[in-house]
Design a protein that fits this description.
The chain is an alpha/beta fold. Helix content is about 40%, strand content about 10%. The protein has a domain of about 70 residues. It is elongated.
Length: about 100
Amino acid sequence: MLAVAIRSDQAEPSPAPSLIHAVAAEFGRLDILVNNLSIAVQGVRVGDPKANADGLDRQWHINVLGVVAATVCFLAGPNAGYIIGGILDIAGGYQI
């Protein structure tokens, strides 16, 4: 097998270690981390009373905290110190 897709909720940083370890268990090591996620809350400016505070909080958790958690776990995970590839962050922008 050359690739595997594992679904993980990036809105919470806590699943990141199990995600990284699941991939390492499948392949024996990790060569590259691809963070392909992002959402965008649309509609009003930040600070507007009509702003969707819950949506903005979810956006922060997914777009920032989820990426940071996965990256930290990748760098400190099962193959720390001998990473062959690198880290690729892709921000698409799924509108909510």
